Amino acid sequence: MKRESRKLQRFAVQLPCRFVSNEGKSDGTVLNISAQGCAITTGHLPSVSTYVSLDIDLSNGEEPATIELAGVRWVSSHQCGLEFIRVRPDMLMKLRAFTLLLEQTP
Questions:
Q1: Of 52, 75, 77, 99, which sits with the fewest C-beta atoms within 10 Å of its C-beta?
Q2: Which residues, listed in sequence order, are joined to residue 26 by a DSSP beta bridge?
């Protein structure tokens, strides 16, 4: 039996991202992603329970997927986990299409 509380499978990726919190702006890399959250690595980790906005570069040439509001759920060494709280419907569709593509890739 799985003990994870995640509702959706996360997929391992290496995607550039930028986020903004009340602690400032920072660049990072998304390490795994679902339509409901992601884990990122960055040199300037936000604190647990803070909120960030996030831009994720899903593919070359396309506009980034923008997460209007995400909560920092955990922080460990150089990584943190984000739960997506507020995402515009068009961005949510973009995320779902991206994760569906990952799911279908062998």
A1: 77
A2: 19
